[in-house]
# Entry
Amino acid sequence: FSIADFSRAIELKPENASFHSRRGRVYHELKNYECALVDYNKAIELDPNQSSAIYNIACIYALQNEPIDACSWLSRAIALNPDFKKLAKEDEDFCLIQDLPEYKLIVLQG
# Structure
């Protein structure tokens, strides 16, 4: 699906958090992080348990080498869905911060 597809879906159902999150993912893949963050944050506003949007915000901050924000968002995502811990260990988006103690504490604990 394209940005235009999700934009049309959002016009029809603006309260659908999943549509915002999925459009954010398309922006994310296109490296348009500013627009992705807007959509992810809107998804979380509509559904605070939107764990994939929270995880993807962590990824963006990691890609931008903002480890404090990345780790904060990653912790939130893992609290909602522990499967993100394993995913984060393998996700290349975290390569810039993977050697930092804060990141290791999150993905290696318990």
About this structure: The helical segments are 3-12, 17-29, 33-46, 51-63, 67-80, 83-90, 101-108.
